[in-house]
Design a protein that fits this description.
Structural class: alpha/beta
Shape: globular
Largest sheet: 7 strands, mixed
Strand content: 25-35%
Number of strands: 17
Distance between the termini: 6 Å
Length: 269
């Protein structure tokens, strides 16, 4: 598998790409070409063009969760036309209306609109995408130090409710050295995601992780997270997006981490 960062808060040095506080990864898995998230705007498309990545060859888009910094790019992507055959995979709650203090933070498209633009599959269960890639669906509580916290409100069939971002999911790649996780924001907890990936894939080896960890403070939860990484022998860590500099620095004191930015490429065997 080859992964290229198309959108992130940072860009790689001396390569002139567009950065934004968002996530988008271009993934080549054998003959498959897919995107994990599409950022906040058309920045991922501008960057893809500069990298000579042909987005017309994309067969699938996986959405990690429904916040606008992961879904906003759906509008410019589908404006290109001729992309009705693209498969889009997400959790059943990903395209609900949601806001935080009156500010809309949801996808620009709802479920009905997307159904007209692509081949939409919504699932809260794990879904096998290829021989090696799996969409994890809804992440259950697996460790006690990563409780979910609400971010704004979400519209449900019963009305408005606190939004615990239950649609937050991830991709897992079965590599020769174990499982490699690709996350969006890890609202469900990065260690919860790792433990659930082990359960779904029947493999206790976590080879690496790239994505947002949604950690901002150097506190007890971070200490427990680092301890989890060490106990599981996770050697390839690439925290980015919604992971503060202080947190990344603290992790790096004990486990060397990789620097992430637009233009970065990873190859996982």
């Amino acid at each position: 598998m080859k992964l290229t960062v198309l959108a992130d808060n940072n860009t790689t040095i001396d390569r002139y790409f567009v950065g934004e506080p968002a996530v988008s990864y271009y993934i080549e898995d054998g003959e498959n070409r897919l995107l994990m998230d599409v950022g906040y705007s058309d920045a991922f498309m501008q960057n893809a063009q500069r990298m000579n990545i042909d987005l017309d060859k994309i067969g699938m888009i996986v959405i990690s969760h429904g916040h606008d910094d992961h879904t906003g790019g759906l509008v410019p992507f589908f404006k290109e036309g001729g992309r009705n055959s693209v498969k889009l995979i997400a959790h059943t709650l990903a395209f609900r209306q949601r806001d935080d203090d009156g500010l809309a933070i949801c996808s620009p498209y709802d479920e009905n609109t997307l159904s007209e633009k692509c081949s939409l599959t919504l699932s809260d269960r794990p879904k096998v995408l290829s021989d090696r890639l799996t969409f994890l669906g809804e992440i259950p509580q697996m460790v006690d130090f990563e409780p979910r916290s609400a971010i704004g409100k979400i519209r449900t069939e019963d009305g408005e409710a606190e939004d615990f971002v239950m649609d937050d999911s991830a991709l897992v790649y079965r590599g020769k050295d174990g499982l490699f996780l690709i996350t969006g924001c890890s609202h469900s907890g990065i260690c919860n995601i790792a433990e659930y990936a082990k359960l779904v894939c029947h493999d206790d080896r976590i080879a690496g992780i790239i994505g947002g960890f949604h950690l901002f403070e150097t506190d007890e939860r971070l200490e427990q997270t680092i301890d989890y990484f060490r106990k599981n022998g996770i050697e390839r860590l690439y925290p980015c997006h919604c992971t503060s500099f202080a947190v990344r620095a603290e992790i790096h004191k004990q486990i060397p981490i990789g620097e992430v930015g637009v233009g970065m490429e990873l190859t996982i065997e």
